[in-house]
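Page 37, continued from 36.
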């Protein structure tokens, strides 16, 4: 097969399937040796039929080894061949017989059972049989690439518009599930069990704990296990070294209370991991010498390190020195090097794991990292989690302070400051029963079930007490699971179902099934093809003007409704925030006092902590203690005042829509127009799909911006406090603690009359910006779509009737699947799309 044909196949998307063909024992080289008949036989296996066959026909010459470039590039020939192909039903005429020497012949009868397919409910009832969303999406994508390529080259408005619309169809949104929990709680074992990969994340060692963020995703492109290691930059490490060594220097003369010792141990652990004992006698400059990083040239070159392995076990072994911290790994020169302090994040990819097809699970080690870039990454991941798993050992679940503290401190980042819809509180190691009197199998099981019930009750009771968390998450967002990862694999006492791991798997499967991106893509593609076919009929110009007038009138009316509702939101925000400003002024002194004079901490200990707080712009997490965040404390009256209204306006639950659903109600009423103006039905279908696409895009943008709006209150306070933190950080010697406290307090008291007002105005101004953006997008996107879809263009467009038919089949099928099978939550998610 020559390069030309090879490139053509790549362009048409067949090469995407080469990986999949490998399961049939065909690698890339042998694929390109196949003849047309073989390829045609393979195609139905991956779900593409007529369209692809037609394209292959274009490549087919007099015999299987000659290809005609003209036949591909000239539209009339293309059209003729296409018609020919359409008549020839499913299978290409066999032309191989004589010339297949050296080529692989395939007998694919009955082979489809080998084909990898996701364990999705959707497969069963679909009108298109075993077509998975993945196949549909890939097929429609390849159709749209083909369409884009076929559009005439003339630079007309409609051409540009259509090309942009096709490029705009995007699908790669992933859902994030964040996993929190103290070290040793069983997070790695849980993730391994849920995704069915016993050996993926290393677990089990007592001293080695996970120290970097690990994202676990599917590798749909290759059958290999992969780890993609992202390092912090050299500059960041240099800054960190400097600050760690300085910290040790500053505190060398401070005596040793318990906190200091812990801090010292922390730093020792970090530096010894990378340098062994050598760091003790070296300067920060010396420690940046390239010789220390010989094993990781990627770090020096600011590149990612990619590890590729055949098995999970092999990958896990190779990965461990980048993810784990083993403080007990011997001393002295023989100590192995552990590189976790230099790693920002590791992404592990598991081959063909359908539970992870659209879902990423993130193992999140504790917050409060000294490294700024890692801390920022942690925050941004937490903000983006749609579900959070809080993991703790069942035996102490309700009483485990540290776990509940994690939930309390992260609730506003996940809730109003994020997009988390549900919290799963996962009690692990349910098989751990030491106090059983009855050691019979039945007795053990009975005790496990009893303890599970009790743990669920207690945890739910505990959750009900968390008033602050409940401002962000209602009772229905909180669910308790009692799992045993060990028993899931071992089945000694419990059946897999009784370990509750399958419940979590089902949850992930539903997240995959609810993935609306395929539907959005297919619906967008259907709209574009409808428009092209509609635009080819130029004889309905008169009708177009009439429809255009009605559409514009509908648009104006609907935009007015949106504006009215958003104005009400702004009024409510202003009212609640004003109350918040008044409360802040009244209570800030008292709140600050309690932060600056914490109970149970010695003066010397607090001196060191406060120094870190002011150096770190108002926030610091002492080891094993609650995080201190002066900015959040100062902003707390404002956030308290707005929390409820904010959650109502920007709910994380997908079934509720932002701004009381007013954007989702926006409609050009194309449905009734289609009944009256059948001649422009195709253009109106396009407008309906455009409307859906625009709303989806707006909802995404609102979700991103609402986090920034919420966080603006604390960020504005931090800005107002910047000057006094810098001043406080400069104190040295005697009375430093007193001077730091006085400086902070004085600054707050003198600026309280403007600081809180400014924070309020900042939030309102961001809210207004968002509202302006929404109105502008509604107005302009729809205006442009109406104008271009109903305007007769100067240039004729190619005929894509067959492509429209194919995509419409997929569209109808997906719509039907949603109606038949989608769980409640997905109805809500896709509600507007299904209406189309
Ligand atoms: N009996 C029992 N032990 C478990 C179970 N799950 C995990 N463990 C054990 O608990 C210990 C810690 O498990 P990990 O999965 O490594 O915990 P982790 O939360 O990932 O720990 P870090 O890596 O430190 O964050 C290991 O010794 C596991 O073998 C379980 O279901 N039952």
């Amino acid at each position: 097969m020559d390069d030309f044909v090879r490139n053509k196949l790549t362009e048409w998307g067949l090469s995407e399937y080469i990986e999949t063909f490998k399961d049939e024992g065909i690698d890339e080289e042998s694929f390109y040796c196949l003849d047309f008949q073989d390829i045609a036989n393979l195609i139905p296996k991956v779900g593409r039929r007529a369209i692809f066959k037609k394209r292959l026909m274009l490549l087919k010459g007099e015999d299987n080894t000659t290809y005609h470039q003209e036949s591909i590039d000239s539209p009339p020939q293309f059209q003729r061949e296409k018609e020919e192909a359409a008549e020839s039903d499913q299978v290409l005429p066999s032309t191989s017989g004589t010339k297949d020497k050296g080529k692989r012949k395939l007998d694919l009868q009955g082979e489809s059972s080998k084909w990898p397919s996701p364990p999705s409910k959707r497969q069963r009832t679909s009108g298109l049989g075993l077509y998975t969303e993945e196949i549909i999406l890939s097929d429609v994508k390849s159709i749209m690439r083909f369409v884009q390529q076929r559009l005439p080259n003339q630079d007309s408005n409609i051409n540009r518009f259509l090309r942009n619309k096709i490029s705009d169809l995007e699908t790669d949104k992933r859902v994030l599930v964040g996993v929190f929990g103290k070290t040793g709680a069983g997070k790695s074992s849980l993730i391994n069990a849920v995704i069915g990969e016993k050996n993926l994340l290393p677990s089990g060692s007592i001293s080695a704990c996970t120290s970097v963020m690990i994202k676990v995703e599917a590798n749909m492109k290759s059958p290999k296990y992969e780890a993609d290691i992202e390092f912090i930059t050299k500059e960041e490490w240099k800054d960190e070294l400097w600050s760690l060594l300085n910290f040790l220097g500053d505190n060398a003369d401070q005596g040793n209370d318990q906190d200091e010792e812990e801090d010292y141990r922390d730093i020792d652990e970090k530096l010894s991991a990378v340098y062994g004992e050598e760091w003790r006698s070296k300067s920060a400059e010396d420690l940046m010498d390239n010789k220390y990083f010989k094993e990781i040239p990627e770090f020096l070159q600011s590149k990612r390190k990619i590890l590729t392995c055949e098995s999970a076990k092999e990958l896990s072994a190779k990965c461990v020195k980048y993810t784990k911290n083993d403080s007990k790994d011997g001393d002295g020169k023989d100590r192995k090097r552990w590189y976790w302090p230099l790693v920002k994040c590791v992404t592990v990819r598991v081959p063909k794991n359908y539970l992870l097809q659209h879902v990423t699970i993130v193992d999140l080690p504790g917050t409060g990292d000294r490294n700024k870039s890692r801390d920022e990454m942690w925050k941004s991941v937490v903000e983006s989690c749609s579900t959070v798993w809080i993991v703790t050992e069942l035996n102490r679940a309700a009483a485990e302070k540290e776990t509940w503290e994690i939930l309390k401190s992260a609730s506003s980042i996940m809730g109003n400051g994020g997009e988390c819809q549900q919290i799963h509180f996962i009690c692990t190691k349910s098989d751990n029963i030491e106090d059983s009197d009855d050691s019979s199998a039945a007795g053990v099981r009975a005790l496990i079930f009893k303890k599970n019930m009790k743990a669920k009750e207690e945890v739910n009771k505990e959750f009900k007490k968390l008033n602050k968390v409940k401002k962000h998450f209602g009772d229905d967002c909180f669910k308790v699971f009692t799992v045993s990862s060990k028993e899931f694999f071992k089945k000694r006492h419990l059946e897999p179902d009784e370990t509750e791991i399958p419940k979590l798997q089902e949850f992930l499967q539903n997240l995959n099934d609810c993935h609306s991106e395929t539907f959005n893509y297919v619906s967008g593609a259907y709209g574009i093809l409808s428009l092209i076919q509609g635009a080819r009929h130029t004889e309905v110009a008169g009708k177009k003007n009439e429809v255009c007038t009605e559409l514009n009138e509908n648009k104006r009316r609907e935009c007015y409704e949106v504006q009215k509702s958003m104005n009400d939101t702004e009024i409510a925000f202003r009212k609640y925030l004003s109350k918040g400003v008044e409360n802040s002024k009244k209570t800030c002194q008292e709140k600050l006092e309690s932060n600056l004079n914490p109970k149970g901490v010695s003066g010397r200990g607090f001196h060191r902590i406060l120094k870190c707080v002011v150096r770190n712009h108002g926030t610091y997490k002492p080891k094993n203690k609650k995080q201190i965040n002066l900015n959040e404390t100062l902003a707390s009256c404002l956030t308290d005042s707005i929390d409820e209204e904010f959650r109502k306006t920007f709910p994380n639950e997908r079934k509720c829509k932002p701004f009381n659903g007013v954007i989702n109600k926006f409609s050009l009423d194309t449905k009734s127009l289609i009944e009256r103006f059948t001649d422009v039905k195709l253009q109106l279908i396009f407008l309906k799909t455009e409307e859906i696409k625009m709303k989806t895009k707006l909802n995404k943008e609102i979700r991103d911006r609402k986090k920034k709006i919420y966080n603006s209150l604390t960020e504005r306070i931090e800005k107002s406090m910047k000057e006094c933190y810098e001043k406080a950080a400069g104190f040295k010697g005697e009375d430093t603690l007193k001077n730091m406290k006085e400086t902070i307090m004085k600054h707050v008291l003198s600026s309280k009359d403007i600081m809180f007002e400014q924070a309020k105005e900042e939030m309102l101004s961001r809210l207004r910006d968002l509202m302006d953006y929404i109105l502008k997008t509604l107005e302009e996107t729809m205006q442009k779509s109406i104008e271009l879809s109903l305007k007769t263009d100067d240039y004729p467009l190619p005929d894509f009737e067959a492509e429209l038919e194919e995509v419409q089949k997929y569209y109808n099928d997906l719509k039907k699947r949603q109606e038949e099978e989608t769980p409640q939550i997905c109805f809500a998610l896709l509600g507007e799309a299904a209406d189309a």
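Residues 539-795 form one domain. Flag for discussion at group meeting. Residues 14 and 142 are 8 Å apart (CA to CA).
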